[in-house]
Amino acid sequence: MVTKLNWSAALLPLTIGSVSLLANLTWATVARGQSAASSVPASQNSLVAKKSEQGSVLKLDQLAQPSTKAADLLLNCDNDPLEVRDSKVKPPCQDQNEPIAQSDSSSPGDGGGGILQPTKDRLQIKFADRDPYGFNFGLGSLIGEPSVLRGGTRLKPSPTVEQVLALFPIGGYFEKGYGPSQRTLFEFIGDAQGAVFDLSHTITPKTFPGQLSFNAQTTRSFVGAFTGDNSIGTEVNLPGGADPWVHRSGGGFEFLFPISSPLKIAAGFNYQLVSVRTGAFTVNTSSVDELGNAVTITDDGQDTLTTFNFAALLKAVDNEAFPTKGTKLALGIDASIPTGDAQISYGRFTGSVSQFLPLNLFGFAKGPKTLVLAFQAGTFAGDVPPYEAFAFGGASTVRGYKGGAVGTGKSFILASAEYRFPIASELKIIVDFDLQGALFFDYVNDLNTAGEVIGEPANVRLKPGNGYGYGLALQAKTDFGLIRGDFAFNDAGDFVANFTVGDRY
Predict the structure, then answer these.
(1) 279-283, 399-403, 439-443, 458-462 — which one is most confidently predicted on average?
(2) How far from each other are the two terminal CA atoms of the chain, in whole angstroms?
(3) Which has the higher per-residue pLDDT, 362 or 231?
(4) Among the four 125, 149, 227, 314, which has the fewest Cβ within 10 Å?
(5) Element (H or E) spanning 170, and its range?
(6) What is the arithmetic mean of pLDDT over 4-31?
(7) What percent of the chain has pLDDT over 90?
(8) How far apart are CA 355 and CA 1, in angstroms?
(9) Cα-Cα-Cα-Cα dihedral of 484, 403, 414, 8, to 10°?
(10) Mean confidence (pLDDT) of the chain
(11) Distance of alpha carbon 5 from alpha carbon 317, whole angstroms
């Protein structure tokens, strides 16, 4: 009799250890910083450099004595000097509707704070000022990062995980606030390739730090493992020729803890029923594709998936909306517990790093010029259901390929390089925006692991498993987020254009 290794049991101590290690390291850093700050003589009459939410840094000395020296000037977003006339001046990169950041002697984990709002790199179109005690609605998302709850509007540690391949993924939200520390939120996305609904309730208790969230969600969409290029026969079809729609319904809870301003961690639990069906709103399930290969674990076409999840996100950048220097790090760990007839057991690890470097090569207008270098990697231990596997190709992975066209694997590495340069500033087409261009190169490799995915959707259809894309992007920097158009060729000479919102890094 073969004994099946329970990867979830093996990973739980690792997940708990990761949280403990991150917390200990960060609190030690905070303690050292507070000790150093307390040793500065008050007679120096200095204002300690303080970062705003978007990373703008104030370096102001001797504010009591007005001066026009360079040392007493604040640089604005375009690196132009701005004379400091008032100690309450707002950094120009900071949202002018937000309060000026004040000094706070409380530790990063003190309880009772407001709900963590999404950073500016997520699309947000508000039709009125947000009322923390009333009803609010708009386009985009109000969910902050990181989040380990499952749902199609929530960002994952890696874009290769649980892709929702919407044509143009702009959703909407309705929010009911019960004060700064509690809310109920409903978010949705809907188009010809996906329908996503996420209902959550979030509270920041005063008795302990961080915030607690519960959600119920359902997602019906295409996923990268079952898509490809239909012109060369790499798409997966069900018996009878129907497209496979992956339905996910379930819920969970998570606890998000902001260790410090740039570093946040989240841990939680999710329960899902996952099925493959012949349409977005049908009850007809299928456990195999038209070639007889498995698309689910169970024979009835519906699997039970129960996971413990952990994520960590570090954003040490100068501007969260449009970074020009700094580092982003993301880590994800998922441990599946065998439940139901499927008895799925796996450990999934993902990690990514993005480095933003100022680099003055060329540009056509005034503004920052930036080199972005990014690297991602991931692997599974245990079972790899096709709808959970890593999928490659498309705007978030390898531009120049259609979604899922490169392959599906148990492991992967993904590298990108992108040079961003200004084209024009202060333009207006309905909304005000700055236009920047980007030259990019993406490469991915599944490390020859396509055959270890249940049903082998990539191997059977002879997807390459590795590939690269290169091209030009046009990016509109607006007050409510980044709008991107990517125009790329791949290593086979094919051309693909993608239009989407939000930064890919």
Answers:
(1) 439-443
(2) 46
(3) 362
(4) 125
(5) none
(6) 46
(7) 53
(8) 49
(9) 120
(10) 79
(11) 41
- For residue 137, give the 3-state DSSP assignment: strand
DSSP string, 368-422: --EEEEEEEEEEEEE---TTTSEEE-STTS-TTS-TT-SEEESEEEEEEEEEEEE
Residue 100 has a pLDDT of 29
Helix/strand number for the chain, H first, E second? 2, 23
| CA–CA gap between residue 331 and residue 146 (Å, rounded) | 10
∠146-221-464 over CA atoms, to 5°?
90
Q: What is the DSSP string of 418-461?
A: EEEEEEEEEEEESEEEEEEEEEEEEEEE-TT-GGGSTT-HHHHT
pLDDT average, residue stretch 271-281:
94
Distance CA(100)–CA(91), nearest Å, equals: 9
Dihedrals phi, psi of 7, to nearest 5 degrees = -70, -30
95 versus 181: the higher-pLDDT residue is 181
Distance of alpha carbon 396 from alpha carbon 300, whole angstroms:
32
Predicted structure pTM score:
0.77
Q: How many angstroms separate the most distant Cα atoms in the chain?
A: 82
Quick one: pLDDT at residue 381? 95
Q: Which residues have a Cβ under 8 Å from the Cβ of 267 and sit 6 or more positions away?
A: 15, 19, 148, 254, 255, 308, 309, 310, 311
State both tokens at 25.
């390291």
| Token pair recorded at residue 283 | 């009850």
Q: Which two tokens stand for residue 337?
A: 């517990």
Residue found by looking up tokens 């990019």 in the block: 440
What is 7-30+116-501's CATH number, 3.40.50.1100, 3.30.450.40, 3.40.630.30, 2.40.160.50?
Answer: 2.40.160.50
- The residue extents of the domains of the chain are 7-30+116-501, 57-91
Q: Is pLDDT of 266 > 90?
A: yes
For position 166, what pLDDT does the model report? 52
Is 336:307 a contact under the CB 8 Å cutoff? yes
- DSSP-derived pairing of the beta strands 411-429 and 431-445: antiparallel
Smallest CA-to-CA distance from 336 within 1, 15, 3, 2 is with: 15
DSSP 243-291: PPEEEEEEEEEEEEEE-SSSEEEEEEEEEEEEEEESSTT---B-SB-TT
Using CA atoms of 193, 199, 203, 208 in order, give the dihedral in degrees to the nearest 10.
-70
Which pLDDT tens digit goes with each residue over 374-433?
A: 999 999 999 999 999 999 998 889 999 988 899 999 999 999 999 999 999 999 888 889
Mean pLDDT of 230-234: 75
Is the model more confident about 78 or about 456? 456
Confidence of residue 261 (pLDDT cuts 50, 70, 90): confident
Structure tokens at 35: 């000790």
